[in-house]
């Protein structure tokens, strides 16, 4: 299990960030705009859409979203997976990284 912080620039647009083959839980949102924070259903800034297991989370401009990722898998050795913005033009422009999981 790892905890990641996903940060979006203040002068940006919402980015739906997607992790291939693993699920995660949204732990909280900080620095959300008023229109997002007023939708919070708990003290951690999470919205209804954040509850339960996810593979994609929408990160709004200026926002930080913390997620807990379960990287358990049943494969031998290291495996490569993708983490990227689900907007195709953003993915093609570099908002995509490889995530290496497992022991060498």
Describe the overall structure.
The chain has one domain (2-101): Sandwich (Immunoglobulin-like), CATH 2.60.40. The radius of gyration is 14 Å and the shape is globular. It is 9% helix and 39% strand. It has helices spanning 34-37, 88-92, and strands spanning 2-7, 15-19, 24-30, 56-59, 64-69, 79-85, 96-101. The model has no long low-confidence stretch (mean pLDDT 95). By secondary structure, the chain is mainly beta. The protein has a 4-stranded antiparallel beta sheet. The chain has a 3-stranded antiparallel beta sheet with strand order 1-5-3, with no helix packed on it.
Order of helices and strands: EEEHEEEHE
The residue fraction in helices comes out at under 10%
Largest sheet: 4 strands, antiparallel
**Structural class by SSE content:** mainly beta
Radius of gyration: 14 Å
The number of distinct helices, counting runs of at least 4 residues, comes to: 2
Q: Which strand order spans the largest sheet, edge to edge or round the barrel?
A: 4-2-6-7
Task: Indicate the mean pLDDT.
Answer: 95
């Amino acid at each position: 299990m790892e905890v990641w912080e996903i940060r979006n620039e203040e002068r940006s647009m919402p980015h739906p960030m997607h992790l291939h083959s693993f699920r995660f839980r949204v732990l909280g949102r900080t620095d959300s705009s008023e229109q997002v924070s007023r939708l919070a259903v708990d003290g951690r800034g999470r919205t209804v859409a954040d509850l339960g297991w996810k593979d994609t989370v929408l990160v709004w401009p200026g926002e930080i979203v913390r997620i807990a990722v379960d990287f358990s898998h049943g494969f031998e050795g290291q495996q490569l997976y993708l983490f990227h913005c689900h907007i195709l033009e953003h993915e093609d422009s570099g908002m995509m990284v490889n995530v290496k999981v497992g022991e060498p």
